[in-house]
Amino acid sequence: MRIVCVGGGPAGLYFGLLMKKLRPEHHVTVVERNRPYDTFGWGVVFSDLTLDSMRAWDAETAAEIEVAFNHWDDIELLFKGTKQRTTGHGFVGIGRKKLLNILQARCEQLGVELVFETEVDSDLDYPDADLIIAADGINSRIRDRYVDVFKPDLQVRPNRYIWFGTTKLYDAFTFDFRRTEHGWFQAHIYRFDDKTSTFIIETTEETFLAHGLDKADQDESIAFCEKLFAETLEGAPLMTNARHLRGSAWLNFNRLICERWSHFNGRSHVVLMGDAAHTAHFAIGSGTKLAIDDGIELARQFERIGHARENIPAVLEAYEEIRRVDVARIQNAARNAMEWFEVVGRRYADQLDPEQFMYSMLTRSQRISHENLRLRDKDWLEGFEHDFAHKAKAANDSLPPALTPFRARGVTLSNRIVVSPMAMYSATDGVPDDFHLVHLGARAMGGAALVFGEMTCVSPDARITPGCLGLWNDEQAAQWKRMVDFVHAQTPAKFGIQLGHAGRKGATRVAWEGIDEPLAFDAWPLVSASALPYLAHSQTPKAMDRADMDRVCDDFVAATKRAAATGADWLELHCAHGYLLSSFLSPLTNRRADEYGGDHKARAKFPLEIFRAMRAVWPADRPMSVRLSCTDWNEAGNTPEDAEIFARMFKDAGCDVIDCSAGQVTKDEAPVYGRMFQTPFSDKIRNEVGIATIAVGAISELDQANSIIAAGRADLCAVARPHLADPAWLLHEAGKLGIADLVWPKQYLSGKMQFEANLQRAATSAK
């Protein structure tokens, strides 16, 4: 096979040498535009796992690289006059130039043809090639020739960065955060050989411009940065090898995702590799790893399927299918880390103390969890846990963050786990019955500190379905009190009631008969912000007039009074998921031309009227929360930035906590799911608005909740489906982590002993 690798970076060189090693009969050429030993940038990093893969595929190359590597386990943070260090992270660093030189020499040893100082304008320059590897970087000419095929999504990120080297040698991967009068700068620093360290400096566009760095040349930028980081540099200079760049040499990172990676041009098969196919931000240092892993996987598929030319289509299909999954995982982690650094100044640096800031930074990619930190550095994490528990006034300072107490007004929760409001659609005429007592009572006995009933409707025409719970009469209130009394008498848990109005999403069937489908008979009239049906065949609601608003407000106030009389500890107002009050907040559903439609203030006017009226009659020592859809998952709808505005309004009105959900406002939405996928909304509102938050959405492990709480991304975690599957979810999760402090019902203590014994037995047998 005739193989041409366009681009002499890690991807092209490593794939080229692997293919020549595996099948010496292949004719492999690597074409590079620069001179043999030119390179730009300084050091690169990747994990121990990548080096393990390289050992398996070409031990000779791996051995030579390993000799040149600088290995470290420690991460050090310099922040607000403190220095913190944690270990166990396992990174390696090497000079980019040294890495390329090793790969070049190995290619020559194996018989790969290296062609330098050659510009490649097109894949058609090599018509006799069977396979063309487009490894020509982020500005790939080959990729851009077939934009309609590869469909690249290139996003220029807002932060500015500049890549220096320095002669000071650092013994840990070091992060240094410095505040100026115009904002924060951060440095990413690591040693890569016996003489030099990489020194990347990053800041926001606003801070960059405020300091006039857009008008500075490279020497002026160096002088500015040396002065700013003088304490860290200790007299060592900053050096640049980017003199080929005009101006200041400050860059924006380009995030690249391609829809496809391969194409047949009529003669040759073309496949993207490395930065030509995908990029990963330097915040997690995975660009080189991805490039090398690309080369390994493509070689693996040729070994599996066959090296003959006719197998190339099948090989490329398999390669792309497998690599796309791993690349997406790394890119997601890199995106999380990148976005953390983009907002660190306004969201974390001023708000968090040094210890929590360190934790937040370590877990920024969401790949490292609380228990993973324990495996890496048990002593550091336990020190953090003790500090967190002490600040939370926990009786036991060894408790993990999610099991520490939380206080809102006069209510103290024993831990940070909440049973989400989950619609059961099992009431008759809105009255809670034995099912609801057993359902909510069981979850209260299961360890959660706060148990919510499902969205509870303030009037018969406020229901979603005929099976929804209500709080519009005394019979309902009496049964609610029965549940509250049970929870208070039998458990340490607190009880929450969530009040809402279905609006245009009302008069539908219960979920198992067709979710959101309108009732075939006995439907009630609907009201909403505007006369827009939820589904095309749904009932069209009436656009509310002032009389409707007054009636609904009175209904919420009456229900609030009844909720208070039940002894419930917590009250939540439902302003999410496309229900009545949500329909006022979203521009997708609010088309009003009066004082209740238009800008944020107008759209929030009626929901705030409701909230203030409820807050006025709800006991002052009991907290109130508001559930918001923090994005509509629709380009024309509300965004997290809009949710932030609404959160500030509710905070000013006396709200104690924002319950940060998302979506379900319209059927025309495109949600992005994943682990803890809604937690970023909570993170943003908590740390930019300065209000306590509840994180919801795909939180399925106590480990995840610990990570969220410890990093300051939320104050509480609401867990829904895991509690449906296991009423004692928290007791069991705590047991798995060896935590015996949670209160089990005294009637179940023998079960606790057996459960813990089984866990111990399983752990012993696993060894």
Descriptive tags:
about 775 residues, alpha/beta, TIM Barrel, 8-stranded mixed β-sheet, 8-stranded parallel β-barrel
How would you explain this protein's 3D organization?
It contains 26 helices and 30 strands. The longest helix has 38 residues, at 312-349. Strand 5 (75-79) and strand 6 (82-86) form a beta hairpin. With 767 residues, the protein is of the alpha/beta class. The protein is globular. Helix 10 (287-305) packs antiparallel against helix 11 (312-349) and helix 17 packs parallel to helix 20. Strands 5, 6, 10, 11, 12, 13, 14 and 15 form an 8-stranded mixed β-sheet that branches. Strands 20-21-23-26-27-28-29-30 form an 8-stranded parallel β-barrel, surrounded by 7 helices. It has a 6-stranded mixed β-sheet with strand order 8-2-1-9-17-16, covered by helices on one side. It folds into 2 domains: 2-342, 3-Layer(bba) Sandwich (FAD/NAD(P)-binding domain), CATH 3.50.50.60; 401-760, Aldolase class I (TIM Barrel), CATH 3.20.20.70.
Structural class based on helices, strands and sheet pairing: alpha/beta
Distance between the termini: 49 Å
Oligomeric form of this entry? single chain
Give average pLDDT, whole number: 94
Q: Can you tell me the CATH class of the largest domain?
A: Alpha Beta
Number of domains: 2
Shape: globular
Name the CATH superfamily classification of the largest domain: Aldolase class I
